[in-house]
Design brief:
885 residues; Immunoglobulin-like; single chain; metalloaminopeptidase activity; Neutral Protease, domain 2; globular; metal-binding; 5-stranded mixed beta sheet; alpha+beta
Length: 885
C-alpha cells in the first residue's frame, strides 16, 4: 500500500453493488432505510477476521458475509468517525479467497448540508402532489452529491476512485413523484406500502462511487434528441426541474444535444450511455456535478429565461453544460487513479468546455474570456507562497475537497491550452482521443496522458510539461533590451515579490510566442520558440515592435522595460483582445510584486479610455479595482484614484448608453452592464441619476420593464450606495419575492454595497438566517469584502459569531465554510488584520479549511507590503497628473 495515502485494504475489491432504498420519511425526520449488496473479490492468503469499508453518519444494523456456502454475520460493528470508516468484525479467522457477497442493512438521514444524500428547499410553482416533503414555508426535493468522498454518507461502500464497480439501484417512492438515477428506468415494482412503488433502474457501466447519483421529487422535463445516431438511434436528452420551471431548461437543452454529438466526434468515442439527464437542484454546493447520465446543477448554471435572466447567465449555462458533458468522457469513462490527479478531470474539462462553446458561439470571443477569467484567476492563486502544484499529494479523501480550486481547474486548463497551442489543436485532440480509447472504463495517470500526446506529436511531452504539473508556481519572464536583441530571464513569480533562492530553483519550459517586426501589424513569429534555461539572449529581434507571449497562450507573466510597456500601449489598436488583457494583467501583477511599478500601470491603463471591448474593460476594471482596494485606507490616494477611475470610464459609459438594441452582440450588452455598475459606483452623475430614476419606477411597481434584466445588479447596487436604508429594505424585499432564477444572487451582490456598519451587520445576520440558502451565503459576503467602507464588518462578524452562527451553520460542508472565509477575508491590505485572523484560528481545528486560511494570510500580507512600498510613488504620480493636490 502506498504510504503517501491512507486507503482501504487492497485485498478486497468490489465489482458490483445493488443499492436498495426504502421507507423514506417525507415528514420531519427525513430518515431512510437501505440495503446494499456488494459483490467483492477477496485475495488474502493468510485469512482475515474483519472487513473495513467507508461509512459516514450511517447506522449499520447488520452486515452479512457470504463466502461460498458459508454465511456469517458481523459480531461487532465499530465506527471510525475521523477516517469515515466502519469495521465489520466477524469474531473468527476466515480462510477464504475468491468471490464473496457482503450485504449490509443500514439507516441514514437525508441531510441539509449539500453532501451525500440530501434535501433542497424551494418554493413551488403550480399544484404540488400531497406526498412531496414540506414544512411551514418550503417544499423539498432530494438528490445526491457524492464527489469527492460523500457516497459513504448515503450507503456503506468502498469509496475510492479506482475501486470501480457496476451499480443496480432501486428506490421506493410515492407514486406521484419521480425518481431518477444514472441509467434509465428498467421496471416499476409494487410496494407493500399504500401509495408507493419501487423504481428499478438499468445496470450502470463500471464506474467510481463518486459518480453514482439518484434524485426524487416533483419533477417535469423538456426533451430533445441527438442528431447523431448511437447504436442506430438518437439519444434522448432531458432537462429536469421541479414543477413550473421546465421551460427555463430549453437553452441548456439546445446546447446539450449539440455538445454530446460534438464531443462524440472530437473524442472519437460515442457517448456511452443510453440517455443524458440534466437536473436543476435548488441547493447545490458547487456549480454542477458530472454524475454519469444524471448531471446535477445549481439552478443558475442550467436554467435561463430570456425574458427575466441577466444575459451573463446565458454564457454561464452554456459553459457549465459543456464542462460537465466533457466529464462524461474525461473523468467518467476514464477516471484519475487517485485524487492527487484530480486536475486530469477538472483541468481538461475546463479547457474542452470552452473549446466546445467556441465551436457553438464563435462571436463570444471565448478565448478572450478564458484569458481574462480563467488564466488571470489562476495566476492570482498560484502567485502565493501557499499555492500547490497542479498534481498535489492527497493523503486521504478528506483532504481532496480543498484542491477543487483554481489550480486544479484554471491553472490545469491554462497549461492544457498552452500545450494544445504548442502541439497544434488537431495533434493534441488526437492524443487525447488515443488516451481515452486506451483507458476507457478504467483509471489513468498524468503520465498516461503525456505518453499518448508524445506518441501523437512525436515530441517528448513529459520532459517539457513535468515541471508545470509537479512544481509549485509559475515564472515571470523579465525582458532586457539591447539593439537587435533581447535578454530574457525567468524566475518564480510571487505576489509578495520576495522569492528566496530555494523557492526559485525550477527551470520551466516556456513557449515564447515571440513576435517582432517593423510594426504591430507587420510582426511575425520569431524562430526561437522556447526559453529552456534561467537566462538566454534572443537575437534578430526587430525592436521597432516586439511582443512576448502572443495571445497569452503561455502560463507566465512578462515584465517589459517601462518604455516598452508604453510603446505596447501606444500600439494597442493592433493587438488582439487576449494581448491587451495580458498586457494589463501583467502590468498590474508586476506592480504588486515590485517587478514593475504602479505608475507604469496607471499610465498604461489611461490610454484605454477609447477601448471598445468588454473583455479588455473587464480586465482593466478588475485590476484597477484591486489597486483602489489596496489603497482604500490611504485617504488622499483613495480619493485621487477614484477621480482617475471616473475619468477613465466616463467616455465609455456615455457612449455605450442604456438601451439594448435589436441584433446587438452579446459582448456589447456585457460591456454596458459592466460600465454602468462601475461608473455609477464611482459617482458618475448621469449614470447615478438614470439608475435612480429607473429604480424608482421598478420598485414602485409603476414600470417593471424600467430595468433591463442585465442591468439589475448595476441599478440595485447604485441605489443601495446612494439611498442607504430605504433601498436596502426595498432590495431585501425584492430578494424575498423575486421569481427570477438569478434574482436572489443579484440581490445579494447588490446588498453588499451598503455604506454603513450597522446595515452591513444587519445584512450579515440576514445571510445567516434561513432566508438565504446555504449555497448562496458567500454571494453577499463577496460584495461586502470588496466594499472598502464596510469590509472590516465581515471580519468582526466572523470573530463575534464564530461559535454561534458561522461554524455551526457552515461546517457541515467544509467546501462551503472554506469558500465563505476565503472570499470574505482576503481583500484586506493590513498586517494587523492578518495577525488578528491568524491568532483567532491558531487554536482551532482547521482541517478542511486550513489551505483557505493560508491563502487569506498570504494575500493580505502581500497586499500590505505592496501598499507600504508603492504609497509614495503612487501619490507622486497622481499629483503630477492632476488627480491629487
Amino acid at each position: 500500500m502506498a504510504s503517501d495515502r491512507d486507503v482501504l485494504p487492497a485485498w478486497i475489491k468490489p465489482s458490483h453493488y445493488t443499492v436498495s432504498l426504502h421507507d423514506l420519511e417525507f415528514g420531519a425526520k427525513f430518515t431512510y432505510h437501505g440495503t446494499v449488496t456488494i459483490n467483492t473479490n477477496i485475495k488474502k492468503d493468510d485469512g482475515f477476521n474483519e472487513i473495513v469499508l467507508n461509512s459516514h453518519q450511517l447506522n449499520i444494523d447488520s452486515a452479512e458475509l457470504k463466502t461460498g456456502d458459508a454465511v456469517r454475520s458481523a459480531k461487532v460493528v465499530s465506527y471510525d468517525e475521523k477516517r469515515q470508516r466502519v469495521t465489520l468484525d466477524y469474531g473468527e479467522q476466515i480462510e477464504y479467497s475468491g468471490e464473496a457477497t457482503l450485504t449490509l442493512k443500514f439507516q441514514g438521514t437525508i441531510n441539509n448540508v449539500m453532501a451525500g444524500f440530501y434535501r433542497s428547499k424551494y418554493k413551488p410553482k403550480g399544484n404540488v402532489p400531497a406526498s412531496v416533503a414540506k414544512d411551514d414555508e418550503f417544499h423539498y426535493m432530494f438528490s445526491t452529491q457524492f464527489e469527492s468522498c460523500d457516497a459513504r454518507r448515503a450507503f456503506p461502500c468502498f469509496d475510492e476512485p479506482n475501486l470501480k464497480a457496476t451499480f443496480d439501484v432501486e428506490i421506493e417512492i410515492p407514486k406521484d413523484q419521480v425518481a431518477l438515477s444514472n441509467m434509465p428506468e428498467k421496471e416499476i415494482k409494487e410496494s407493500k406500502k399504500d401509495g408507493f412503488h419501487t423504481v428499478v433502474f438499468e445496470r450502470s457501466p463500471i464506474m467510481s462511487t463518486y459518480l453514482l447519483a439518484w434524485a426524487i421529487g416533483d419533477f417535469e422535463y423538456v426533451e430533445a434528441f441527438t442528431k447523431r445516431k448511437y447504436n442506430g438511434k438518437s439519444i434522448p436528452v432531458r432537462v429536469y426541474t421541479t414543477r413550473g420551471l421546465k421551460e427555463q431548461g430549453n437553452f441548456a437543452l439546445e446546447n446539450c444535444h449539440q455538445i454530446v454529438d460534438y464531443f462524440s466526434e472530437v473524442f472519437q468515442i460515442d457517448y456511452p450511455l443510453p440517455k443524458v439527464d440534466l437536473l436543476a437542484v435548488h441547493e447545490f454546493s458547487h456549480g454542477a456535478m458530472e454524475n454519469w447520465g444524471l448531471i446535477t446543477y445549481r439552478t443558475t448554471a442550467v436554467l435561463f429565461d430570456p425574458k427575466t435572466s441577466a444575459d451573463s447567465y446565458r454564457n454561464r449555462v452554456a459553459y457549465v453544460v459543456a464542462h460537465e458533458l466533457a466529464h462524461q468522457w474525461f473523468g467518467n469513462l476514464v477516471t484519475m487513479d487517485w485524487w492527487s490527479e484530480l486536475w486530469l478531470n477538472e483541468g481538461f474539462a475546463t479547457w474542452v468546455g470552452w473549446f466546445a462553446i467556441d465551436h457553438l458561439y464563435p462571436e463570444w470571443n471565448v478565448w478572450g474570456q478564458f484569458v481574462t477569467e480563467s488564466v488571470q484567476t489562476a495566476f492570482q492563486l498560484d502567485a502565493l507562497r501557499f499555492s500547490h502544484p497542479i498534481e498535489v499529494p492527497v493523503y486521504d479523501g478528506l483532504e481532496v475537497d480543498q484542491i477543487f480550486d483554481h489550480i486544479s481547474y484554471l491553472k490545469g486548463s491554462s497549461v492544457i491550452r498552452m500545450l494544445s497551442s504548442h502541439l497544434g489543436e488537431k495533434v493534441f485532440l488526437q492524443g487525447v482521443a488515443d488516451y481515452l480509447k486506451a483507458h476507457q472504463y478504467s483509471n489513468a495517470t498524468t503520465n498516461d496522458l503525456w505518453s499518448a500526446l508524445s506518441k501523437a506529436s512525436g515530441q517528448d511531452v513529459n520532459s517539457f510539461m513535468d515541471n508545470w504539473i509537479r512544481k509549485i508556481g509559475f515564472p515571470v519572464v523579465t525582458v532586457a533590451e539591447e539593439p537587435g536583441q533581447i535578454g530574457l530571464r525567468q524566475q518564480r513569480f510571487l505576489l509578495a515579490g520576495d522569492a528566496k533562492p530555494e523557492e526559485d530553483e525550477t527551470v520551466w519550459w516556456i513557449p515564447l510566442g515571440l513576435h517582432s517586426g517593423a510594426s504591430a501589424s507587420e510582426a511575425s513569429l520569431h524562430k526561437t520558440n522556447a526559453l529552456t534555461q534561467k537566462e538566454d539572449t534572443i537575437r534578430d529581434v526587430d525592436d521597432s515592435f516586439y511582443q512576448v507571449n502572443k495571445n497569452l497562450t503561455g502560463f507566465y507573466r512578462t515584465n517589459y522595460p517601462a518604455e516598452r510597456l508604453k510603446k505596447l500601449g501606444e500600439a494597442r489598436q493592433s493587438l488582439t483582445v487576449q494581448d491587451k488583457i495580458g498586457l494589463v494583467g501583467d502590468a498590474y501583477a508586476n506592480a504588486v510584486a515590485g517587478y514593475g511599478s504602479t505608475p507604469g500601470l496607471l499610465a498604461l491603463i489611461e490610454r484605454f479610455q477609447d477601448e471598445k471591448e468588454y473583455l479588455v474593460w473587464s480586465q482593466i476594471l478588475t485590476n484597477l479595482g484591486n489597486v483602489r482596494n489596496v489603497f482604500s485606507g490611504v485617504e488622499d490616494i483613495s480619493d485621487a484614484l477614484k477621480k482617475y477611475a471616473l475619468k477613465l470610464v466616463t467616455p465609455a459609459v456615455e457612449q455605450v448608453g442604456w438601451n439594448f438594441k435589436a441584433g446587438e452582440g452579446f459582448l456589447v450588452g456585457q460591456l454596458r452592464a459592466q460600465l454602468i455598475v462601475s461608473a455609477g459606483l464611482l459617482g458618475h452623475k448621469g449614470t447615478v441619476n438614470e439608475a435612480l430614476r429607473r429604480f424608482d419606477l421598478y420598485i414602485s411597481g409603476k414600470d417593471k420593464s424600467a430595468i433591463n434584466p442585465s442591468l439589475r445588479k448595476g441599478v440595485f447596487s447604485i441605489a443601495i450606495k446612494e439611498r442607504g436604508e430605504s433601498a436596502f429594505r426595498a432590495i431585501q424585499n425584492e430578494y424575498l419575492t423575486t421569481t427570477s432564477i438569478d434574482g436572489k444572487e443579484i440581490c445579494l451582490q447588490a446588498l453588499g454595497r451598503v455604506q454603513i456598519p450597522e446595515l452591513a451587520q444587519e445584512f450579515l445576520s440576514f445571510i445567516f438566517s434561513d432566508k438565504v440558502a446555504m449555497q448562496d451565503k458567500h454571494s453577499g459576503t463577496i460584495a461586502l469584502s470588496s466594499n472598502a467602507k464596510v469590509r472590516i464588518e465581515v471580519w468582526k462578524f466572523v470573530r463575534n459569531n464564530w461559535d454561534s452562527h458561522v461554524h455551526p451553520t457552515l461546517s457541515g460542508n467544509m467546501v462551503v465554510l472554506e469558500r465563505f472565509l476565503r472570499f470574505g477575508l482576503n481583500k484586506f491590505a493590513d498586517e494587523k488584520v492578518a495577525d488578528e485572523i491568524a491568532a483567532f484560528f491558531k487554536d482551532k481545528d482547521t482541517r478542511g479549511y486550513n489551505k483557505g486560511l493560508d491563502v487569506i494570510d498570504d494575500t493580505i500580507r502581500s497586499h500590505a507590503k505592496y501598499r507600504t512600498r508603492d504609497e509614495n510613488v503612487v501619490r507622486e504620480w497622481l499629483q503630477a497628473n492632476g488627480y491629487a493636490q
